[in-house]
Write a structure and sequence with these properties.
heterodimer; A: two-stranded antiparallel ribbon; 12 helices; globular; B: mainly alpha; three-stranded antiparallel β-sheet
Chain lengths: 443, 536
């Protein structure tokens, strides 16, 4: 790994002196290292992103406001956690039992209320509209921790469970080589049909027969091949696909390898079982795993939907964090959880919303656990109604910059890109009060 | 030890056998199933191409076979594969001008507008969401307008003028969306789009003078909302600028009086008959679309200098043809499609490193994502359920609609994303990624979806299996089925080697239930072959 990163430094013309191992916590001291891409010995070997697509209400989850009007809290109460100073919404009882294992940021802000733009900003840390479309953090980590830099597993370094976000192109201006592997299927179904890897109808023998037949058929027409660069990767990618199908990747997605108790602990829901698959992928060495959890865009019937969804969410996420902790994987696995924004603290009781909440980018919450983040902390605060950041605003670039840093990637490093431009991984933090160093574990 | 005479005998016998094989194969392989005759010269385009190739001493490919031609033509011109009936009729047609006749026929098909709307929406960046944010209603209106313009074959200079001079509501004046389909609604943001779309020039790579001068033409473009959800009016604010001189890329200075829309002055200059920047861009784009590489490469990253390129004479000729034929784009399609250069085989007869640059063979390329999924749907009689619940209003596309008619690049589909549908973020041709990756191969080799498609294909064409029962003998029956499947899916008849391969495979699996499995495997093999997945 060391050799590879060294070679890459040279390749991007960034190696000025010896690549000294710089633990992230010391980063602030070291100046003028903007072009260095990697930090060695970074704590987070794997990142698990839980994306609450649509924007979950912060008041009804991580930032409860039990003592104000029902017009804001909808009558939801707060509950104590196992950390004295932290309270959560009563909707999250399982997470309340393990608050020492994660930290909460209650001062996330970007002020954008459109799904697509807010998603882009939260995924890239970039303001829109400068003529470039940046890649999402998953694609960047998938690239910088992927095949170009020593990753050698069959399974892609960046895996999405089970569908893409849609909304925008995750790889941005990067080559499509850095596209995530998207599983499709449903891990809580009787059979988890992982797109192309686990097929319902074809036996392994038949697959091998077909492979042989295809080889012979293609070779009959070999005269027309190989004269064109564009057709060459047909062969290469076919070989790769077979190594994925016929190798042990299949087993990684096979939840029957887990005990019944373990599966039940995560909850027999799509979200719960996705969390379990995510843990199995983390064990395999996958670098970035996203679980896209749709359905938080609760303009109408807000409380009814939240009550249903949060049961699954609370159980799955709490099981994931505890399980990682039990397996001694939490220190090396960074879990983060957020939506593109929060929801309007003031409830819209009138028609047609009948108790809904709108989009709210001015102030919302996020959760981080493991991978070099301390547990049991709260960063920042919202005001009494949750409508404004009261202290320590955290912008998307601070938030993502921290994840990059703990994953061993210098947010100020230059991102390799096909545009031939000198683009930093994260923009300069002109408006912020810095990355989340206050909740980095000290070495 | 072998005696000397014995050795001689062995050598002689081997020699005879070898000659036999060579004799057979050389006869059979003089032209592969993909080739018809030696290289030809059909029209003026070929003169230019041949002159360059001769100069470089590069050997041209043979003329492609009729089967290759019909498939290529259909896919290139209407994004649609030919039916088995169309292929059989064309192959049986004895007329010497049958290719030219077919070209005329295909150019008149209604799918022409469907397919080219798709390509135009790529470069005009038609999508609801980030980073273009046209929103669904406007996307539908804009797509409909583009489709109508192509259906009516509106002259290209008129089409360009309509886009550039549009004012009004994004719903009622759909072409006004040209000014909305930009990442930044500023004079510079618009100039960037105009430069790329109509001149194939990357604004951001040009001098600051170029940038400044072009942007002034759009300095009065303004936007305002209305009470209608997501309606937006594009208008001119004449109070912004006093009299000024508009400087064009080729150095002209034109006075723009206060109260005059500078876009009119700019557009008059742009679409003038002698403006090579305008003419060169579109003929080169069409060449790129049909030949998979521009005469100038990359086809939307052109130099400001309109002279001194590799294929200068040919470009000049095509530009002249465009102007002389009243900007009728189909005329340009027609002359390119009729050329022997277009009708070359993709089987190269040279290893010269510049062969592609000089068009010494047809450059094959993986099918467009939309075209591929349409082909699979057509074969199986299936369709896709495209929908988007965000942003409002929700969009649901009828299952019967083909994927090439999909207006909105924001409508999610893992198939389309994995197979490289363009993001339409910038409008670059390179955003469409027609190459393979392992995720695509996994989908085609082993997904439940492809297996379902295979079931559907066999079910829809069960008449092939049924009618094969009339044929006596296992081998003959397999051969009949194979021929029909090849014509259906690959648009050609199988070679004798291929027939033998399939017969051998079916024999090895046996009859009864296993026979059905063999048919399944054969369909799978064809769908997974490089030949099927490429336009070649």
């Amino acid at each position: 790994m060391k050799d590879i990163s060294r070679r890459k430094f040279l390749k991007f013309g960034a190696l000025t002196a010896a690549t000294v191992s710089i633990p992230p916590v010391l980063k602030a001291v070291v100046q003028n290292n903007e072009e260095k891409i990697f930090f060695e010995d970074a704590p987070a070997k794997c990142v698990i992103e839980i994306w609450m697509w649509g924007g979950p209400s912060h008041l009804d989850t991580f930032d409860p406001k039990p003592n104000i009007s029902r017009d804001f809290n909808g009558g939801l109460k707060a509950i104590k956690t196992n950390v004295p100073e932290i309270e959560l919404s009563e909707t999250l009882p399982s997470l309340a039992k393990i608050a020492d294992k994660y930290s909460i940021i209650r001062s996330m802000t970007h002020g954008i209320n459109g799904h697509e733009t807010a998603t882009y900003v939260m995924q890239t840390g970039r303001e829109p509209g400068n003529g470039l479309v940046y890649p999402a953090i998953g694609a960047v980590i998938g690239m910088l921790r992927g095949y170009d830099y020593g990753y050698n597993k069959n399974i892609a370094p960046y895996v999405i469970l089970t569908k893409t976000k849609g909304r925008f192109s995750e790889t941005g201006f990067l080559s499509s080589r850095y596209r995530p592997f998207v599983t499709g299927g449903n891990p809580s179904a009787a059979q988890f049909d992982v797109e192309g890897i686990v097929s319902r109808y074809v036996t392994e023998q038949q697959q091998l027969d077909r492979k042989e037949l295809l080889n012979r058929f293609n070779s009959m027409n070999s005269t027309k091949k190989k004269n064109n660069e564009r057709s060459k990767n047909y062969d290469k990618t076919t070989v790769e696909a077979y190594s994925l199908m016929l190798g042990d990747v299949k087993n990684t997605f096979d939840l029957s390898k887990e005990s019944k108790e373990m599966r039940k602990k995560y909850g027999m829901t799509q979200f719960g079982q996705s969390c379990l698959v995510a843990r199995r992928l983390a064990e395999k060495g996958v670098k970035y795993i996203t679980i896209n959890v749709p359905g938080w865009d609760t303009h109408k019937r807000h409380f009814e939907i939240m009550k249903r969804k949060l049961v699954e969410f609370d159980q799955g996420l709490a099981a994931l964090i505890s399980d990682l902790s039990d397996k001694n994987m939490l220190d090396s696995t960074l879990v983060w959880c957020s939506g593109e924004f929060g929801r309007t603290p003031k409830i819209l009781w009138n028609e047609p919303w009948n108790g809904g909440r709108g989009h709210f980018g001015n102030c919302f919450s996020a959760l981080v656990a493991g991978g070099g983040f301390k547990g049991g902390c709260v960063v920042g605060a919202s005001d009494s109604t949750g409508e404004n950041v009261a202290k320590r605003p955290v912008y998307p670039e601070d938030f993502l910059g921290s994840i990059y840093e703990l994953a061993g990637i210098n947010p100020e490093g230059i991102m390799p890109n096909p545009l031939g431009k000198k683009l930093k991984i994260m923009p300069s933090m002109t408006r912020s009060s810095g990355r989340l160093t206050e909740i980095y574990c000290q070495k | 030890m072998m005696g000397e005479s014995m050795k001689k005998l062995v050598v002689t016998v081997s020699f005879i056998i070898l000659c036999g094989i060579i004799g057979m194969t050389s006869h059979a392989q003089k032209y592969s199933v993909f080739e018809k005759t030696s290289p030809q010269k059909i029209n003026k385009i070929d003169d230019f191409i041949i002159a360059n190739l001769t100069k470089k001493n590069i050997q041209r490919a043979n003329l492609c076979s009729d089967a290759v031609f019909i498939r290529r033509l259909y896919i290139d011109v209407i994004g649609t594969m030919p039916t088995a009936k169309e292929v059989k009729e064309f192959l049986a047609d004895k007329r010497t001008n049958k290719r030219a006749l077919l070209i005329n026929k295909v150019l008149q098909r209604s799918e022409f507008a469907d397919y080219w709307s798709l390509k135009w929406c790529d470069i005009l960046r038609v999508k609801s969401e980030f980073p273009i944010n046209l929103w669904p209603n406007a996307v539908q209106a804009y797509h409909k307008y583009i489709h109508e313009s192509l259906s009516k074959n509106i002259p290209y200079n008129k089409f360009s003028r309509e886009l550039l001079l549009a004012n009004g509501s994004n719903f009622k004046v759909p072409q006004s969306n040209f000014y909305r389909a930009v990442q930044s609604k500023t004079p510079e943001g618009i100039a960037r789009a105009v430069s790329l779309t109509f001149m194939g020039i990357r604004y951001e790579k040009q001098s600051s003078d170029f940038q400044k001068n072009l942007a002034t033409a759009f300095s009065q473009v303004k936007y305002k909302g209305t009470d209608e959800w997501k309606e937006e009016i594009v208008y001119q604010d004449y109070n912004l600028v006093d009299d000024f001189y508009l400087k064009t890329v080729d150095g002209q200075k034109i006075l723009v009086k206060k109260g005059v829309d500078p876009r009119v002055v700019f557009t008059d200059w742009l679409v003038a008959k002698d403006n090579k920047l305008f003419n060169r861009n579109i003929v080169n784009r069409i060449w790129y679309w049909l030949m998979n590489r521009g005469l100038i490469h990359e086809a939307d990253n052109l130099p400001v200098d309109t002279n001194n390129t590799l294929h200068q004479d040919l470009l000049d000729y095509l530009e002249q043809e465009l102007v002389n034929n009243s900007y009728n784009l189909k005329h340009i399609y027609r002359i390119i499609l009729n050329s022997a250069t277009y009708q070359q085989s993709s089987v190269a007869r040279t290893k010269h490193k510049d062969a592609e640059k000089y068009f010494a063979y047809y450059i094959s390329q993986r099918l467009d994502a939309e075209v591929l999924i349409d082909m699979i749907d057509y074969l199986g009689g299936t369709g896709q359920r495209y929908s988007s619940v965000i942003p409002e209003p929700f969009t649901y596309i009828p299952v019967k609609n083909r994927t090439i008619t999909l207006a909105d690049a924001s409508i999610g589909s893992s198939f389309l994303e994995n197979f490289g549908r363009p993001s339409r973020d910038m409008g670059y041709l390179s955003e469409r990624k027609n190459f393979f990756n392992d995720i695509q191969r996994l989908y085609l080799i082993n997904s439940t979806k492809i297996q379902n498609s295979i079931f559907k294909i066999i079910k829809k064409h069960k008449y092939i299996l049924k009618s094969s029962y009339k044929i006596k003998g296992f081998d003959a029956r397999i051969k009949y089925i194979t021929k029909e499947l090849f014509i259906l899916i690959l648009s050609r008849y199988p070679s004798t080697d291929e027939l033998e391969l399939v017969v051998g495979y079916c024999k090895q699996n046996g009859a009864g239930k296993n026979f059905y499995r063999s048919i399944n495997d054969i369909v799978w093999t064809i769908l997974n072959s490089e030949e099927f997945l490429m336009k070649h």
